[in-house]
Amino acid sequence: MSVRLKAIYRGGAFVPMSNGDEVNMPENTEVELTVHDPYLLPATATTAEERGRALKDLVESWKDHPLSANAPRLTRDELHERR
Q1: Which residues, in sequence order, are CB contacts of 33 under 8 Å at separation 6+?
Q2: Is 16 in contact with 4 (CB distance < 8 Å)?
């Protein structure tokens, strides 16, 4: 059986959004979540040529903006932005 519900990530936990329905599960039930990132855009390249052009543009951008060897090291929290 599967149940579809919306939740908010708050205080280190996924909290179900209330829509008037109770989540009918015993405490400590193990669930599997699929997170859909609202900030992730789907790929728009549909052909091999478009993907190749996008990859070429990406590599050129990397070459135009190289990382400095003496750049500050980021902490784990800085690398994994919290929203």
Answers
A1: 7, 14
A2: no
